[in-house]
Amino acid sequence: METTVYWEKQNPQSKLCALHCLNAFLQGPKVTNEELVGISHRLGKTESELLQQSGKTFFSYDSLGYSYDSNGGDYDVTVLIEALRLRNFHCNYYTLNDMKLSTFQQRNDKCGFICNAHEHWFCVRMLMTDRWFILDSLRPGPQEIDYGSLYSFISTLLENKKGAVFLVSPSIPGMKLPEAEPHLYPKLESHQMFLSLDDIKQLNDQGAHDFQDEEDKSFLYRAGRSKPGPVVWPTTGGVRLDDTSRVPVTTSTPKSDDDYTGSDACRVAVKLSGTARITRSFNPRSSLSELFAWVEKHIDNTGEMFYTLLQTNPNRRLVKYVTGCIELIENEGPPRDGANATLLDAGLESHEMFILRCD
Question: DSSP 3-state assignment of 353?
Fold first, then answer.
């Protein structure tokens, strides 16, 4: 049987790139828009319930950053991560510190990438044994790319802070990334395609005249359908990738000299409100007191008896009292003294997302 690549073509008037990206990564029409809408509802409800546990304030999905258009498909990044988690894949933010040429040189059936640039999702997979493809629903077809060019592209994307890159790999030992299985899907919609190398070449040849090089665009965006201008994306899970472009507040990404740059860095994001976020990289041996001191630079907590940094998964709360005491509460267990605890002691890993609640 001839080896094929699964790819979906996006209607330029829609915003279903997240859906197309997921299905291209999974190499089949396995995710539906209805599923993503349901995931978005559940995530918004979970955060809303956490925020209301000790208060009566009502938080809507929109205020939490989970607004979506069921026809447009404008989904929060956490929706994609959850859809992949349900299929036994985990996503990690990919940084310049993670870049290794060997990742791109060697045969790779255990990891791939999902990327966001200019508010547009696409994925990168090694398919057909040893061929890298950029699977972008706004392109004429799948784009084969050599490992050196791919390494340079992802490096540039990360260096210029024009997007976000996630490394996706199976969460079950020995599991491999899925390959195209066209015999399982005898009936496809017009935008869903299983393509041979000849089919891919024909699609790209047909679309070549519409996708000319433009000096001010990367090779991924030659169609003249460029998205809004580049922004500095947040770099942790749970943050809407387009929020920073709409928030003219002082809660932007900290200056680089505030960030710890070691390979063991813990990247922390705090959602201050529905749209305002702050992010910073910490030394994992930094104290929880240092974490709270950083947060306090960005909020006015005058008058509150305490404030809390909440997480949904894992179920964790970091509480700072007006007296200066710090408590760590996990899975509804008894509070632990966190005054002298480090981020490592508290179990924080490479990327963590918190919600701020002031009481």
Answer: strand
pLDDT given for residue 349 in this prediction? 86
- Counting the structural domains of the chain, the total is 2
Give percent of the chain above pLDDT 70: 74
Residue type, 220: L
Q: Which two tokens stand for residue 54?
A: 């000790």
CA pair distance 176, 184, nearest whole angstrom: 18
- CA gap 155, 95 in Å, rounded: 9
Residue 349, Cβ neighbours under 10 Å: how many?
12
> Global pTM?
0.60
What amino acid is encoded at 302 in this protein?
T
223 inside domain: no
| Residues assigned a catalytic role | 17, 120, 136
Range of the domain at 267: 247-358
Backbone angles phi, psi at 137, to 5 degrees: -70, -15
* Boundary-marking domain end, from 182, 210, 238: 210
Distance CA 153, CA 344 (A): 33
Asked which of 163, 194, 210 is the last residue of a domain, the reply is 210
